[in-house]
Design a protein that fits this description.
5 helices, about 90 residues, mainly alpha, DNA polymerase, domain 1
Length: about 90
């Protein structure tokens, strides 16, 4: 599991096999991760351990995660990225 203090590894873990995921995850970890609570950081790190096809389906809205915490994090990431892009 990724450690909360190892941000360079988190940045690297956000580089996925799909450009669509890179565009979603990389800006979030760069701009928002440090402001998360420790509990939310743990959920984010757990999210990064999921398979790319699952992440793609969740972020594109094709499916929802059965894990409430992961689904909540997906929604939070999408919301924060949208707010940041509107500035």
């Amino acid at each position: 599991m990724l450690k909360p203090s190892d941000k360079p590894r988190l940045v690297w873990a956000c580089r996925r096999g799909m450009l669509e995921l890179d565009v979603i995850l990389s800006p979030f970890v760069e701009h928002e991760y440090d402001g998360l609570s420790e509990a939310h950081k743990a959920v984010f790190r757990r999210l990064l351990e999921c398979d790319d096809p699952d992440l793609f389906a969740w972020f594109m809205g094709h499916e929802r995660s059965n894990d409430v915490a992961l689904q909540s994090m997906v929604e939070h990431i999408l919301e924060r990225n949208q707010v940041r892009n509107q500035r």
